[in-house]
Amino acid sequence: MVLTDDLITAVLLASTAFFVVLAFGLLVRYRRLSQRISSSSDLGRDLWQALEQRMRKQDERILDAMGRLEVIQSRVLALPVPQPPAILPPTPPSAAQAPASADVTSIVSPVQPPESQQESHTSQAASDLVRLDETQLKVVSLLAESPKNTRQLTDAIGMSREHTARLMKELFEGGVVTRNDATKPFVYQLTDQGRRFLPANPNPG
To answer: Which residue of 34, 105, 148, 200 could cross-link 152, Cys pair, CB 3.0 to 4.6 Å?
Structure first.
């Protein structure tokens, strides 16, 4: 009987020791797994931060490239466009053989024409050099009220920004408007030659 009790006690002690060792082993393994998960989270966080920094640098490079492109575009648009030489009518051999045209008389005659005649010739020359369509005439009327930038003109004529930029470049090259390159967007103003295209004021004084 005593031997049986000792055997049962030994078995219970062995079982208790086994479960204690098993619990300790599971606890150690759980701690190792927790450390691995924590280190993996730190690694993922570091990788994400590095990716964000690279994306931020890439955005800064893109913005810098766009700024340089705008500067180059403004410089290219500001370059003067060479004007073709004016073609004059042939000079008659003598004043007696010259036709009675008012334009030829104004060229060969030493007497200066009246001021009104000079203005009409200048207006006619401007009209011959630059011919404006309906949209360009609308822009001229808008600029006659006050100087405007590209965004204001785009909203007023109801066209895209690219189309408005091409249109204003043609008017600028034709001497109809002036452009202030110091502002962004550019501010355009009507020139004296451009005012000659106004229907209400064909010959300004």
So the answer is: 148
